Structures are given as structure tokens and as C-alpha cells.
Amino acid sequence: MARTAEKRGKDETKAAEKKVKSTGKSAGGARGGITAPVTPSAELAEIVCKNDLPRSEVVSKVWDYIKKNDLQDAKDRRQINADDKLEKIFGKKSASMFEMNKHLSKHLTAKKD
């Protein structure tokens, strides 16, 4: 049975922590960058959830929300027509899919260890 991205992330974190404890050295970049857990703002948590998630999972959940609520523009699928929740994140009524990550990053905080 295939593992979910969340389960895979937890397994990678456990493996990295075990390596750090056994060798005393850093985990060599494990769980960094796009896989590092981030904390969503209150506005973004209404869409994705309030738990810490990898950035890739946040983007995936936002896309699920956009598709579920049919928020892509009918004529130009690259444009996202924001509802009330997304407007809080984008700061405007419409945004392109290319600028979405820029707006999301303002609502994500890197997890402090």
C-alpha cells in the first residue's frame, strides 16, 4: 500500500533524527527546503489546516481547495478567482497560478526547533 506524503515525511524525519542521535552530525539536509515543515497563518489554516506541513503539502491542499470550489477562471485556467478565504491570502480578487506561491509564502512561517 502506498504511503501518503505526510507519512513519508514523518518517516524521513524519524530517520534524520535517528541519524543525528547516532552520529552527532547533522542529517545532511534532510527535511529542508520544500519538505521542511512550515506553520500556516490563521487565514491559511482555514483552508489547509492548522498543523505544521511541508510546503509542498500546503500548495497541494490549496490546489485541492481551488478545484473543489471551482475557482479557476473559465476562460483562462491560469487565473484563480479568489473567494472570501483566498482573498485574505492573495490580498485581491484574482491571482495567477504563477504568483500564488508568492502570496502563500507570506502566510507560512518556518518551524523553529
TrEMBL record:
What InterPro entries does this protein map onto? Answer: SWIB_domain, SWIB_MDM2_dom_sf, SWIB_MDM2_domain
The entry's protein name is DM2 domain-containing protein
Q: What is the lineage of its organism?
A: Bacteria, Pseudomonadati, Pseudomonadota, Alphaproteobacteria, Sphingomonadales
Region of interest called Disordered, as start-end residue ranges on this chain: 1-37
**From which domain of life does this come?**
Bacteria
Q: Where do the DM2 domain residues begin and end?
A: 33-110
Q: Where is the composition biased (Basic and acidic residues)?
A: 1-20
